[in-house]
Amino acid sequence: MHTPSDSGGFMTSSTTVSQPGVRVRIQQFGTKLSNMVMPVIGAFIAWGFITALFIENGPFPNETIAALVGPTITYLLPVLIGFMGGYNVYNIRGGVVGAMATMGVIVGSEVPMFIGAMIMGPLTAWGMKKLDHLWGDSIPSGFEMLVNNFSAGIFSGAMAIIGLLAIGPVVAAFSSVMAAGVQFLVDNSLLPLTSILIEPAKILFLNNAINHGIITPLGTEQALVDGKSVLFMLEANPGPGLGILLAWMLFGRKESTARTSAPGAALIHFFGGIHEIYFPYVLMQPLLVVACIAGGMTGVFLNVLLGVGLRAPAAPGSIIAVLIQTPDKIPALIAVFGAAAVALIVAAPIVRATRSDALGEATAKMEDLKGKESAVAGVLTGTAAQSTKPIERIVFACDAGMGSSAMGASVLRKLVQNSGHSEVEVTNKAISELTDTYDVVVVHQDLADRASPLVPSATIVTVDNFMNSPRYGEVVEMVNRSNAQDEDTSGLTEPAPSSEIREEADTISALAKLVSEDLTVLHGSATDQHDAIEQV
């Protein structure tokens, strides 16, 4: 498999796939957790609203409505998570047996059993799937429904008993240890140190494992007791990302892609809650992770100091979702903007000292002067590719299939339709839901290793910036070429001679050299462009 270039680009999947590394395995684990929790976030939010409004200390106390609070968090939410965990493994059948088995760990514990549900749901569904395969071909004709129903009932019932007697108490003890650890950090004013782990994990797309595996279960338990939890703000605070994007807006090199795209990215990040959009701005200068950590620690410190907490998870991590879920709106804003200010201050000198890739700048400048995209720009930046078949289906894939992939698919869909290719379907999916039925797969370069084995016959387009429209423009050009060849091969314009391509390549290379740092002349004596060229 070809490795995507640093600047984002194209690669064609291959059947030869290396074993995933630790980072990829953690991403996959986090995605599995996310796929169990994110589809039922609406139920968490509903529980948060009911708790905030109708409990005894709420603004509209109502004993009848408040009776929903306990059963919802104790039974409904864990069962929904268990169902989704089973569904992701073995469809509806897996969801049903997973939900039943989850009841065992719920009854076997006195705390909300979210972690237990994340174990019992997929584990029971996996066992059911293996059993069905074991005797699937030996069931007498006409007895399929009888065997399927009774096998599901017996097996899920047995797993519920195992959950009640064995797994539930173990998970409850584990949850108690984690809760004690969090309380220790809070009591000793050490909670801000969690940003040292959380902020880099977010940049590497490892946040789902932390957020849905630890923060959401513990935060929900805390909110059940106190009515709110500061833990929900550890990962959801949009302040650090806003500070990073503001640094690029104010101190990035003029006319650079990072600086010009940062305002739009900031709006999407802060109000839309899609945090992934600022990750590429950190990845292009890894030192900026220090700014993320500093901003994150500041936000946590202010949240603890001011007593800020959320009633339920803020998903997505938008300032709008945060303000809706917190009763402490002014303190929450202080914490968010405080985190952004510190991240901006730390990031400013790093961004100011960062120089963009000279070849990338030269290519973009050449295409701007030319008035259209270069046919060889992809070759020079390691992004050239061409589909060998007509393109009918394009999918934009991200970790959870909801945030950045939806945004990217919307952009691509408009570009493809505007180019006259209404026959091309553009959708978005979670990486875990990809199947080998797509012609082109667009994915962030850090997630390409996970996508490739799932789509061996597709052309994979890797991007390092969700706002980087030239990447999307190259996809449209590929659609134009591939589909035009299929529709009317005889009417195509002859490809440019190799000498013309070489000449254009030489032009780009020359421009790259002119803007490279080593050949930049400061305080020169040239007064016009000809003297400047001679002086260089």
Structure description:
The protein has 536 residues and is mostly helical. Among the domains are: 223-356, no CATH class; 358-488, Rossmann fold (3-Layer(aba) Sandwich), CATH 3.40.50. 63% of the residues lie in helices and 5% in strands. It contains 22 helices and 5 strands. The protein has helices at 22-37, 41-54, 63-66, 69-107, 114-135, 144-187, 195-203, 207-226, 232-236, 239-251, 257-272, 279-283, 288-306, 319-325, 329-352, 358-370, 377-380, 404-418, 448-451, 469-487, 498-515, 529-535; strands at 9-12, 393-398, 425-430, 440-444, 459-463. Strands 1-5-4-2-3 form a 5-stranded mixed β-sheet, with helices on one face. Helix 19 (448-451) links the parallel strand 4 (440-444) and strand 5. The longest helix is centred in the first third of the chain and has 44 residues, at 144-187. 48% of the residues are buried.
